[in-house]
Write a structure and sequence with these properties.
Blueprint (H helix, E strand, L loop, with lengths): L4 H35 L7 E2 L2 E2 H36 L7 H5 L7
Antiparallel strand pairs: 1-2
Helix pairs in contact: 1-2
């Protein structure tokens, strides 16, 4: 790694705080879908695909949101891992054959 230990630690701390913000946002969505919609279910009286909206959210919508949240978090973490791996990758060194140059004998 080419960074100094303090700089590398600061980058890791920044990445962890970014991860915590994602987790907090997803937990807020989870809370709204799980508890707020159920709390106000009686006020959500309109048809959604032929079913009452409160029933649809309780039976299907919440599950769809949970799966989408898990997929979004996995996609986001994979992207973060790729950028972290690119930042930590050592600089490539030329092979020994390229260092000899043209016209040198391989003996």
């Amino acid at each position: 790694m080419n960074d100094t230990p303090d700089l590398a630690e600061a980058r890791q701390r920044q990445a962890w705080h970014r991860n915590l913000r994602w987790i907090a946002g997803l937990l807020a969505v989870w809370f709204v879908v799980t508890f707020v919609v159920a709390w106000f279910a009686r006020e959500l009286r309109f048809d959604f695909f032929g079913w009452p909206f409160s029933f649809w959210v309780g039976a299907q919508g919440a599950l769809v949101v949970y799966v989408l949240m898990a997929a979004l978090y996995a996609w986001r973490m994979n992207r973060a891992d790729e950028t972290h791996d690119e930042a930590d990758a050592p600089t490539p060194r030329p092979s020994q054959g390229a260092m000899r140059g043209p016209g040198s004998d391989a003996a």
